[in-house]
Amino acid sequence: MIAATALMVKDADKLTMGQELQVITPHAIEGILRQPPDRWLSNARLTHYQGLLLNPLRVIFTPPTALNPASLLPDPDMGTPLHDCADILAQVYGVREDLQDQPLSDTDAIWFTDGSSFVHQGQRWCGQKTLPPGTSAQKAELIALTQALKLGRDRKLTVYTDSRYAFATAHVHGAIYREQGLLTAEGKDIKNKEEILALLAALWEPKKLAIVHCPGHQKTTDPVSWGNNLADQTAKIIARPPAQLLTLQLPDPGPRELPPSPEYSESDIQWMSKLPMTRIKDGWWRDSKSSIILPDKLGWQVLERIHRSAHLGSWRMLDLLRQTRLKIRNVSDKVDQVVTKCTVCQLNNASSNPQTTGVRQRGSRPGTYWEVDFTEVKPGKYGYKYLPVFVDTFSGWTEAFPTKNETVQIVAKKILEEILPRYGFPVMIGSDNGPAFVSKPCRGSMKMYGPN
């Protein structure tokens, strides 16, 4: 009826030339157009009809006036509408007639629903169980809403959800599925068929029901946003299992206290005597910073115990020893020896071989040393998408040639036709060892003419 009215108004504009137009109809077209289009019409169509028909200065809706055939006077009883358009829409496009999309004023409970899962190593998990392939967040939202309706049996319930899919399934798509079957527009089975059927059956569990859509992940502090965020956080906590803690038992490093009396050797005493401002306290030698000087034998034992407890590297062990205020003769060399002789460290630690940095030689005169590389031109015109660039390392002079391909033939051709005739034979041509530079034809042609 709305589409027919819009079509007639559009054709009548050709005759009225934009003047006032009265639309006489027994249907509540104006009232229906002012309702939200959640249940029966898309936003695009509703916007088109509202812009065309809801124009109070030009389009006026009036009820029909019926005449009594006997008196030819208006009969008020004959103008009574035979039905309520809003009720008809609710019956046709709704699964349950009293299902509302606004909160109930006499509700017994207000619940919020949400779902969550996580992906680990390419597979979706929920708690300690893996989910089947193809499981989506929409399926979780349907299950959550269904369980909420089952728990609210025989109660006046208001349920908030941030899923447009679950909200539309309950309010709009359920009636369509009831008439046309669980099929898509192409005639194929819809996804989540079992969950949709369970939701449509659970809609009749509560005594009175309102399913309300609310925006998700809002930062406002109103009760609806707070409740939705709490449901989202609770779903995430339940979906993600607690982190597993791996305990590691380290070997006992030995006694933490020094022996009551040290056993210094003659070599230890000779070395300590040469240190400045040393003194003896409680039988222990101390240096100028009051650090205890350990005997050579005891120093080896302390270093081996420290390393065996956590297998620290040389730098970490030296840093730890500085904090203990212990002094050991030639401590750096001894720490390196302890770490090097440790079998566990040598088997597990990565190789510490220093990486050699590349060196680009610079020529002593122009034209002797060149660097070449390909760059891509975007957008390429007339098929020329690549640009081989030659740079003289001595002067910085640049030669570039647009090409259609990035091949070894192009490199050899440009060197033979452009570089050699004008600059002579180069001593070396460097590159990034790309496919166009390390192939056998390119290297063969370079060896033939001299450059490396």
From TrEMBL:
InterPro entries: Integrase_cat-core (IPR001584), Integrase_H2C2 (IPR041588), RNaseH-like_sf (IPR012337), RNaseH_domain (IPR002156), RNaseH_sf (IPR036397)
GO biological process terms on file: DNA integration
Keywords: Endonuclease, Hydrolase, Nuclease, Nucleotidyltransferase, RNA-directed DNA polymerase, Transferase
Integrase catalytic domain sequence ranges: 362-452
Record keyword Nuclease present: yes
Keyword Transit peptide applies: no
Top-level division of the source organism's lineage: Eukaryota
Xref: SUPFAM superfamilies: Ribonuclease H-like (SSF53098)
Record-annotated RNase H type-1 domain positions: 105-240
Pfam family, one: rve
GO molecular function, one term: nucleic acid binding
PANTHER family reported in the protein's UniProt record: ENDOGENOUS RETROVIRUS GROUP K MEMBER POL PROTEIN, RIBONUCLEASE H
Protein name as annotated: Uncharacterized protein LOC128777374
Organism encoding this protein: Panthera pardus (Leopard)
Source lineage: Eukaryota, Metazoa, Chordata, Craniata, Vertebrata
